[in-house]
């Protein structure tokens, strides 16, 4: 096995020294994006495991995210990166081997293993006797529903402590939610000064080693100029509060025409449905070569006040004609349709559409409302969202205007009675295009370069 070759002082910023030298069993690391808190935890957990490996001991670490399908692109790759930083290899003949079903990274000589779990698979996690545990890491801890979700698994891990370890070392890392009343903000504040707890804050401003590149700084500055509160929330890690209005409407940028220096490459459709009770809306979005996101056109049908409501078969036909007309527009000839996204709770119209036209709508994996709103906030704060003041005409009924889209977003508000709570609610009136925009951002976050 190769010798580890790493200079920790070149890999860990000075502001994390107390974390690296922690004597506390419980360590809460909160901070803004690009603060490198997750990188520090990954390096430290590998470092701790190597102490046992060098003594021929088997030692295990458990890494948990709320949702299992986020593991590969986050903590799994982060631990692989950290192992590589110490000069070890992960491959068929390497020092470590990896598997993805289940997610594990195992040291060949000692069997020391990093186990990766989603909290959504807690029963399997709880029934597994891992033993020889030296560390547990909850990444993106704000995704969890309460402190109790940690407590019910922590006892299981403590019982399986390595006999040479004084205690199991626990880490929580997260970006503080915007809402100061979110349970995790309240919990971490209460832990400050508690015996056996280290609560650490960090932001990109603490970087002294040059990890934050000029390109990253330029992007941060752009967001800072567009939406200062969002900058404070995302990059400084400050729970800035919500306010009554959900969005800053100055960040919805109107266009009289399409940009002459850019072109639409891809088309996306997103739909919120209502049938006989509330409105059905479908948005047509364009993604340009320069990364602009443009609301190109809107289908909006409301059954309010109508004696005869449209049936799913009629709505399916309307939507099909809307997509056919917008996707073949001369203004973006050759643009490809990437996805059609729909509320996951909607089955009737989705099935009707497939039955009639043989095309699937992708049900969105909905998050908590505040988390879906945050994705829209991110897109707006990047200054990349636009809408056509006058869409190119299709000549179809219920189309060719984005006014309802803008008006609904202007009126979109949090319920003031719920603001000072852990679970703020929006007022569910005239919010159909608002939901549909959120589905678009959630369902296409990777394409839109949004944080998932």
UniProtKB/TrEMBL annotation:
Sequence ranges assigned to domain Phage terminase large subunit N-terminal in this UniProt record: 25-238
This protein's name: PBSX family phage terminase large subunit
Positions of the Phage terminase large subunit C-terminal domain: 272-439
Source organism per UniProt: Alkalicoccobacillus porphyridii
Superkingdom of origin: Bacteria
